[in-house]
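Preliminary data (for renewal application), beta-D-glucopyranose complex.
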Amino acid sequence: MKTYLQHHPWQIIEEGFHPEYQEVSESICSLGNGRFGLRGNFEEGYSGKTLQGSYFAGVYYPDKTRVGWWKNGYPEYFAKVLNGVNWIGMHIRIGDQLLDLASMEVYNFRRVLNMKLGILSRSFTVHPTEGGQLDFHFERFCSMDNADTAAIRVHIQSKGYHGMLRLESFLDFDVHNKDSNYGEQFWERKAETLEEQFAMVAATTKKTAFTVSSAMHTHVTRNGDDLTPDSVLAPMKVNQIFETMMHEGDVILLHKYVVNLSSLNIASDQQEISGRKKLATARHAGYESLKENHIAAWQRIWDSADIEIDGNVMAQQGLRFNIFQLWQTYTGEDARLNIGPKGFTGEKYGGSTYWDTEAYCIPFYLGTADARIARNLLVYRYLHLPKAIENAAKLGFTDGAALYPMVTINGEECHNEWEITFEEIHRNGAMVYAIYDYIRYTGDAAYMNEGGLEVLIAVARFWAQRVNYSEPKQAWVMLGVTGPNEYENNVNNNWYTNYIARWCMEYAMEQIEIARTQYPVDWERIREKTDFTAQEVDDWRLKSEGMYFPRDETRQLFLQQDGFLDKELMLVSDLAQEHRPIHQKWSWDRILRSCFIKQADVLQGMYFFEDHFELDTIARHFDFYEPMTVHESSLSPCVHAILAARLGKIEKADEMYLRTSRLDLDDYNNDTEDGLHITSMAGTWMAVVRGFAGVRVKDGTLHIAPVLPAGWKGFRFKMHFRGRFLGIDISGEHCTVRRLTGETLDIVVNRERMTV
Ligand code: BGC
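Predicted structure:
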């Protein structure tokens, strides 16, 4: 755990340079605008430990699978999120010295990520060998108002420094992915253009043929007078160089305007024309006006997505950081895009879509944005249904059964580890759960016949084929799976997987019946399209009614999987700190044999299907499983926070909340340097809204049952629900719900029905 960042409600502040955590800070200071984003790398470069990263939404490379033992059914490739053009680049020479904070003494260092404004800034002082000092201030943003544009401002002042200063403002496409399987460069050179007012570099991805181009205009003044650049061009790199003498008090002001375009939005042969136009618009608008519009766009997001907490700055900072990073990653404008677990903050994980989107992110977007955005996310999966059917067919399933991929970018599976690719099939259930969640939240039941039901049928078919009958158990069993807890592989009868499989079959049967009886025309179309036969329902009924669930009668517990109680049961509290995180300290063999749980598994099921269980049943399972849970998946603490709040374990809920909300800021799992845990950030929002505010939807009605963690005086947020926009204010004993837009609404607050 790291505590070098200061607490502030709207800002992340690093006071004094911490080179030992530079990669962590780079992740935390990532910026993005839904179209592109980058890590908090230094403009001038850094010769110390750093992960240079600049990413473009939807642009990927299918890196040929690399495994020791090839198994049939493996995907051919792993879709890599590509490290793209370095567009912030700016080498700075002071006399003979290259500005490099890894090799120079740095004074008065301060780095601030201002989340309210969406701006990253950094200031520091260096003492050149020639004497005197130079004060630097950098500021940059990726425009939320105009998603192709970004801008950087650098202010340099001499305090007693007399000598040369050379600024090399560049765009560099000669970049590599650190995680490339074969050390290959994924980009091919396409074009470079270099003029005094305009520089551009473009490259195309190998195999996938995406073209990305970056155009820049750099404007530099010394004491208000323009400097003229020299231009240098190299393959995949364009450079505008400004050189001047500096004297006491001289001020250099640099503005770099950047336009980044990808062929997802602008055809590659149009990018230069478009880049010129957009760059000219940005330049003429000027830095301050671009910045103003960018800040106004963030203000609009905060107006509906913010949650204000009274009385706990740490909790507040963590929460806003999570909301900020999610909106930087995905703005919901483009149905081809999704929310990658690392967003624009690192390479690890590849692909862009995991079950995280359905299980965690959809509730966040349902609450904080128009229903259109969550619907887009459902449509994304609907469009991938044919690929999911192909994917299941590759593994031997037939008749339109679908297995959605664990990791994907275009609908094809691209995860390369057998225990996850083939076995972590519970993800299929999340696809269906998201449809259920969306419809109950928005009331948009029409979605079922517009796509939802086809997904339900294909997934139910998969489960019906995946189970087999066990004579000894006289029940339908599911063998060889990995549950959400990835610290167990190839287990039999993972309770969560069996539970969600049964529910999927039941839900499909129920919805088919509704379609058949209430929407016969739609049903006829769907029936024909899916080749559905009435016997299928008999099969699903048989299997769902006869599904096996591992259980211990003495303890009155559902078991995570067959044989769970054979393990040596230990508590995480008995595990010495030096053993944690266990995935970094222990062999895989030791992890698999241990009882320790990576993330909610049985409890994930109880969280999804809370209404299916008595409260004391949930409490019993929480008390048994949580103490063995190491929460080494970022998706873990939020689910536990919500359940703990529901169970009245407020202290536990608070502990879990802090862990989910400050996971990256405090680097709980010692892996923030690889990038942020973007998808689990939605869990932080859920921990407050579903956890502390106790928001639920039951039979189409909104329920609120707030609790306040110690130290919180209150909290308030806004929320979309069924065409209304509500303001919810929880202060001490009081809960106020305001209807900000939309028609009157009946709600239930602390079991009392009322009208807003
Ligand atoms: C978790 C998965 C999750 C993935 C991406 C893994 O560590 O165990 O449940 O889908 O990360 O966030």
